[in-house]
């Protein structure tokens, strides 16, 4: 896996006082500009990301932003005009945005008493049927 590290550099969160009825959460991960970077002898690709969680109708927002660093990728093949163009690298980036930054967004949502920005699994308990004797 070429993702080396995910950093969180900026966090913003807000909530209004009155809870509206029928609130929805829109979660938008995005990759912003990307560039080559050298760390010692290692060549990296550094990409800015932002995870936005918007609570509608206009009730609150959470934003987590930072950088994702990729190793073992050829920057000349995966970058074009400051953007990542390789679908596999993009997939891995979005997958990691839904790990560290999302955990931070979940913690902020809990502190602000907002609905979680992810759907948690539902647990269903079913009665076990009696076996019939033949």
Explain what this protein looks like in three dimensions.
By secondary structure, this protein is α+β, with helices and mostly antiparallel strands. The chain has helices at residues 75-78, 87-97, 100-111, and strands spanning 3-15, 24-39, 42-56, 60-70, 79-80, 83-84. A 4-stranded antiparallel beta sheet has the order 1-4-3-2. Strands 5-6 form a two-stranded antiparallel ribbon.
Rg calculated over all Cα atoms? 20 Å
Q: Beta-sheet strand percentage? A: 35-45%
Overall morphology: extended
Count of β-strands: 6
Average per-residue pLDDT, rounded, comes to: 89
- The termini sit apart by 56 Å
Tally of alpha and pi helices:
3
The main sheet orders its strands as: 1-4-3-2
Biggest sheet record: 4 strands, antiparallel
Q: What would you call the structural class?
A: alpha+beta
User: Helix amount, in percent?
Assistant: 10-25%
């Amino acid at each position: 896996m070429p993702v080396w590290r995910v950093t969180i550099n900026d966090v913003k969160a807000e909530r209004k006082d009155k809870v509206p009825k029928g609130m929805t959460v829109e979660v938008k991960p995005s990759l912003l500009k990307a560039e080559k970077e050298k760390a010692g002898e290692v060549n990296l690709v550094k990409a800015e990301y932002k995870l936005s969680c918007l609570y509608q109708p206009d009730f609150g927002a959470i934003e987590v932003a930072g950088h994702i660093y990729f190793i073992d990728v050829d920057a000349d093949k995966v970058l074009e005009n400051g953007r990542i163009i390789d679908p596999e690298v993009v997939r891995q980036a979005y997958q990691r945005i839904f790990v560290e930054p999302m955990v931070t967004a979940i913690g902020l949502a809990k502190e602000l008493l907002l609905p979680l920005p992810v759907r948690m699994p539902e647990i269903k308990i079913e009665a076990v049927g009696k076996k019939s004797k033949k």
